[in-house]
């Protein structure tokens, strides 16, 4: 028996594109990608604030199946990365499978299928649901008194409006993650003034983020695809050093931390400003910020660092707890994302009416980043525990997609109708994760977007080889498979409950 699985992928960002391509290569033809945005690219579509750059070298920050030789900079701009994603979809024939402007508002499982409903009320029914909905997806709006009363332009960086004028204006920026640092650096030269409101300073590694990639390198790599592939592999291997630095205490971690302290000491000579910029936690504990221009921007006469807490936002600016009022024309929220809201606000209902919110009351929990007990035939790509900040996200997404494809293949061959990870296997994986988090730098005492409300660190604490091993092939004893849908009371003929082996 052979039948084609009907598959829906939600999201056309990095993980959705990687999955759509992988499934196409594996010969799956009934695949649709549903994307709420008006373009592909995920965070690279939504994020378009001034100064947006990727601090991962572009020769690594790309799909293995779509190498791009001729990046204009070593660390490409957001605009160039977004163009790359669109080109990949067009060039590899994925665009025809992608439905833009389609927001899935609910996904409900019953009798072996998922029914998805979009914002227009249109429904589709599929056998498998793959959620590639991203981490940096839902903007976090701070709960500041008076925020709604601000009479100037108020904008979150992830919803930047190109019409906003900042040149010649008094601009306030709240937040000092990778985004806040980039946006302050970009706006400072043109604005009348920039006031940077910083609740907890970050360590900032110096790097020449704007250096061009030599044209000759692009030409050579384009003409020599095998060499290019070796360069990509070399970057992938080199990124293993980063994974090692953040997961294992060693001289390498100490060296990077010393470099972070040196970056501050050498660039900020004023002891008072330096003290205001010195974090009270170890470098690398939060997602590391990299910049070659932030400290310089901050030391301009028209830029001010404000570390006093925000008491309230008024119609004309921001009042800090010391009673000072900072007059502003534009207020930029660089306050990050609700990073643990995976898949939400979509209403996801799994087996026996279990909602995702119910399943995750104490925080997101998945098996090997991709499967959730209670949610048969649903997989996530770059789901909980994904390696943001240590291992290539494209590589992780491609591995996960190939892993999922193996289940789809079994469905196609008629070996399974439904597959669901067991609670016990998920528990075991979570225990492994918690155990491995111990020596990581993320566990050295800082607040960061990596922490869930329950205090768990939502990251991948293992190395790349472990990820490749865990996602090489499904470990059958960790799943229950059936040839009839879950949720049917009577055991139907041909019932094939997988026996752990
Ligand atoms: P983020 O790292 O979560 O930073 C949010 C900032 O907003 C923090 O400084 C936080 O302060 C501050 N904040 C939040 N609520 C606040 C409040 N009520 N009052 C005052 N301050 C408040 O967010 P992000 O900068 O957007 O970066 C998120 C992630 O996106 C990055 O870590 C990175 O993974 C990715 N990113 C990557 C790049 C790149 O170059 N590859 C560029 C941009 C973003 P506290 O620290 O005190 O909470």
Tally of individual helices: 13
What is the total domain count? 2
The CATH architecture of the largest domain is 3-Layer(bba) Sandwich
Which word captures the global form?
A: globular
Tell how many strands the DSSP assignment holds.
21
Helix content: 25-40%
Q: How widely separated are the two ends?
A: 25 Å
Mean pLDDT: 95
- The CATH superfamily of the largest domain bears the name FAD/NAD(P)-binding domain
Instruction: Could you tell me the CATH topology label of the largest domain.
Output: FAD/NAD(P)-binding domain
User: How would you characterize the largest beta sheet?
Assistant: 5 strands, parallel
Write the layout of secondary structure elements.
Elements: E1 7-10, H1 14-25, E2 31-34, H2 43-46, H3 78-91, E3 98-99, E4 104-110, E5 113-118, E6 123-126, E7 128-131, E8 153-156, E9 170-174, H4 178-187, E10 193-197, E11 204-205, H5 215-223, H6 225-247, H7 251-267, H8 271-276, E12 289-290, H9 294-298, E13 303-306, E14 310-314, E15 317-320, E16 325-327, E17 330-333, E18 347-349, H10 356-359, E19 378-380, H11 393-412, E20 418-421, H12 423-437, H13 464-470, E21 479-482
Parallel strand pairs: 1-2, 1-7, 2-3, 4-18, 7-19, 8-17, 9-10, 9-17, 10-13, 11-12
Antiparallel strand pairs: 4-5, 5-6, 14-15, 15-16, 20-21
Bound molecules: NADP nicotinamide-adenine-dinucleotide phosphate.
């Amino acid at each position: 028996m052979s039948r084609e699985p009907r598959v829906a992928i939600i999201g056309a960002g990095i993980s959705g594109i990687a999955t759509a391509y992988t499934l196409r290569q594996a010969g799956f033809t009934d695949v649709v990608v549903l994307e709420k945005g008006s373009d592909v690219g995920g965070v690279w579509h939504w994020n378009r604030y001034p100064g947006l750059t990727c601090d991962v070298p572009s020769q690594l920050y790309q799909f293995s199946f779509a190498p791009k030789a001729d990046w204009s900079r070593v660390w490409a701009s957001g605009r160039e990365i977004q163009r790359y994603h669109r080109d990949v979809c067009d060039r590899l024939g994925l665009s025809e499978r992608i439905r833009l402007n389609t927001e899935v508002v609910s996904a409900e499982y019953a009798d072996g299928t998922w029914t998805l409903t979009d914002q227009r009320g249109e429904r589709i029914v599929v056998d498998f649901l793959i959620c590639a909905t991203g981490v940096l997806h839902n903007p976090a709006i701070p709960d500041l008194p008076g925020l709604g009363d601000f009479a100037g332009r108020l904008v979150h960086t992830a919803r930047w409006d190109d019409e906003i004028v900042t040149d010649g204006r008094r601009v306030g920026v709240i937040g000092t993650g990778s985004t806040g640092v980039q946006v302050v650096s970009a706006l400072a030269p043109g604005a009348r003034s920039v006031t940077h409101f910083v609740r907890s300073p970050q360590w900032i590694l110096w790097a020449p983020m704007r250096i061009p990639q030599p044209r000759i390198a692009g030409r050579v790599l384009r003409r020599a695809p095998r060499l290019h592939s070796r360069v990509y592999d070399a970057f992938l291997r080199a990124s293993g050093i980063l994974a090692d630095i953040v997961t294992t205490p060693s001289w390498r971690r100490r060296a990077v931390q010393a470099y972070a302290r040196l970056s501050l000491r050498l660039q900020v000579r004023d002891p008072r400003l330096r003290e205001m910029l010195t974090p009270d936690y170890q470098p690398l504990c939060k997602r590391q910020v990299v910049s070659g221009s932030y400290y310089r921007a901050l030391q301009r006469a028209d830029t001010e660092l404000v570390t006093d807490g925000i008491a309230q936002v008024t119609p004309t600016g921001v009042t800090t707890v010391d009673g000072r009022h900072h007059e502003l024309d534009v207020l930029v929220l660089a306050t990050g994302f609700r990073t643990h809201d995976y898949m939400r606000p979509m209403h996801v209902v799994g087996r026996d009416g279990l909602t995702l919110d119910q399943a995750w009351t104490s925080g997101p929990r998945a098996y090997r980043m991709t499967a959730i007990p209670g949610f048969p035939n649903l997989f996530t790509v770059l789901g909980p525990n994904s390696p943001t900040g240590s291992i290539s996200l494209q590589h992780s997404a491609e591995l996960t997609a190939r892993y999922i494809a193996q289940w789809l293949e079994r469905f196609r061959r008629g070996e399974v109708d439904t597959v669901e990870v067991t609670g016990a296997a998920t528990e075991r994986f979570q225990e492994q994760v918690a155990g491995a988090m111990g020596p990581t730098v993320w566990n050295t005492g800082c607040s960061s977007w990596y922490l869930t409300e329950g205090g768990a660190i939502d990251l991948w604490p293992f190395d790349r080889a472990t990820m490749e091993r865990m996602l090489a092939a499904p470990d059958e004893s960790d799943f229950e498979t059936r040839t009839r849908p879950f949720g049917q009371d009577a055991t139907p003929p041909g019932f094939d409950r997988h026996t752990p082996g």
